[in-house]
Amino acid sequence: MPELPPVAPLIEGETVRLRPLREDDVPALVDNCRDEQARRFIPVPLDYTADDALTYLNHTVPDGWRTGSSHVFAVADPADDTLLGTVGLHAFRATTADVGINLGPAARGRGIGTAACRLVIDYAVEGLGLRTLYWHAFVGNEPSVALARRLGFTFRAELPAFAALRGEPVDVWLLSLTIDDGGTIATPGA
Ligand SMILES: CC(C)(COP(=O)(O)OP(=O)(O)OC[C@H]1O[C@@H](n2cnc3c(N)ncnc32)[C@H](O)[C@@H]1OP(=O)(O)O)[C@@H](O)C(=O)NCCC(=O)NCCS
Question: Does 16 sit in the ligand 1 pocket, CB within 6 Å?
């Protein structure tokens, strides 16, 4: 793997921008993490506060970049740079990592998730040399799996109690995407 960047690089797409999180993102980050879907499908604190957001953007995310344990980007609207959500790579191991995304309700259903994940996958493959990416969705998170499939991920397994949500076990759908030596998505059985 090449040397890891110390902070999130700016990545410009046509419909989304990936950039570092900033303190003026706090109100939107709080709203996004207090949303019902986020509470149900992501292990965020139930009553996410501005302090939680500040800890996340001043400590958790920079620590991830510095140590190489995770690479989290803000997903922003290129028109006005407002925060739409977050997307990132987690649990790096050899040529593999997990993709994670959380968008605020107003950003959903407009192709933002597809565009943001495509940018992060390109970054993972071309920037970091990763070859296999994994997608974990809590069982029942149909929008998440629909997005993963649209990105080219293949369903692999349902894993009982693989994750935890506020101390309770949660079943997980696991999907994966493998990039072949030519740089394109390898379709199993094709
Ligand atoms: C799961 C999640 C990331 C999906 O993101 P999203 O931005 O809504 O996904 P997209 O907009 O790319 O796709 C959603 C729909 O918009 C449609 N769409 C509309 N305009 C589009 C465009 N320009 N390009 C692509 N798709 C478009 C897609 O076809 C899709 O419809 P379908 O599912 O009926 O086929 C988002 O719902 C979310 O953040 N949820 C809460 C947190 C969460 O569950 N995160 C995942 C944890 S594993």
Answer: no
Q: Which amino acid is at 119?
A: L
Token couple for 38: 């986020």
**1 within some domain:** no
36 Cα to the center of ligand 1, angstroms = 16
Domain count, the chain: 1
Q: Whole-model pTM?
A: 0.93
Q: What is the CATH number of the domain that holds 68?
A: 3.40.630.30
pLDDT digits (tens, 9 = 90+) for 118-147: 999 999 999 999 999 999 999 999 999 999
- Domain of residue 165 covers 11-186
Task: Pick the atom of ligand 1 nearest to 40's CA.
Answer: 44
Residue 43's CB is within 10 A of a number of other CB atoms, namely: 13
88 Cβ below 6 A of ligand 1: no
User: Residues 161-167: what's their mean pLDDT?
Assistant: 96
28 lies in some domain: yes
Q: Answer yes or no: is 123 within a domain.
A: yes
How many other C-beta atoms are found inside a 10 Å radius of the C-beta of residue 133? Answer: 26
With a cut of 80, say whether residue 2 has pLDDT above it.
Answer: no
